Records
---
Amino acid sequence: MSDDNCCDNSDNNSDSRASNTGIKSILWINPIGVGDYDFPIAEYIHTIKQQDVAVEVVSLALSPTPHHLEYRTYEALVAGDIIKATRYGAENHFDAIVIGCFYDPSLEAAREISGSSVVVAPCQASLQLAEHLSNKFSIIVGQAKWIEQMSERVSAYGCDSKLASMRSIDISVPELQRDCRLTEDRIILAGKRAIEEDGAEALVLGCTCTFGLYERVQQELGVPVIDPICAAYKWAETMVELKHRFDWSPSRQGSMAPPDEQELKSFGLFQTQDLVGHRVVI
């Protein structure tokens, strides 16, 4: 990715490319307050995105901040800032917004405040894809602690009957990209057991920090292996295409009704300019 199509910029006063007429646009939110993952993920998305889509990868304007969301405590602490980043996406007219964590944190609240922007998240997108490619799938998780919370999401999405198992590789989020070969080896071992012992016909990698690791695993095991960044991003592109072609935007009736703008103003919400932190534009 060259400097011509990616600029690294933490200044939130610069205009978003999403505001340009006619450009399809996607906002990717890394739901932590450090920009460590922004550029690597932007580089990865650059390799899979369509040429006519402008993408912005942002992290939160949150300090101090957790550097991962392995604990419910950390997820609770970043919830408000995910909503602020979603508001930033809505105000800058992004066609779609992706919340880049496999727990799908604050997804329902983000959809409520997203304006005309479609909101996508990796777990839901990955499970929907797995359902189209298999009758039974397993999720490969970093640590066993994740299983309870991810099981809640799987159940909420109505996929219990499709889930063969969840298998842990005993690697924390910060370690997943430090030794990619080790991570791949453990995914292959866990995936082989899921296929042979649990009846899995496809595998879902249960963390966005496994990006770029699916190919070797897929070759070794001979089943579809779903990278959650690819699944979420390409689903967002699909939704953007449907939005542009058929005018399918989020409903704002009934349970999808957003807070009243006058009330938001009276509460003093979203008045700060620091709705996002670090930014990378593709």
---
Amino acid sequence: MGNQDAIDLLGMTASIILPFFNVPLIIRMIQRKSSSDISLVWTWGVFVCLWGIQPAAWRSADLIFKIFNTTNVVLYSGVTFVVVYYRWRK
């Protein structure tokens, strides 16, 4: 395995794992039944930016970018849903 292969493997692994760090955030909000410590501006800003990047990821030849952004859009959409749910629930 060459250096480029090792770098690609590391990037691919990180691109899959990193978005899963959204899961503990979702779980913590559900357990507390609150999202009051999460900024709505930040939540919507990240959400809109991820969806704004998504078309470029779909068109990209870079598989790591595609996997990362698609996984992040899916899991961060969960964060956005939970934040908004607990804010509107009050």
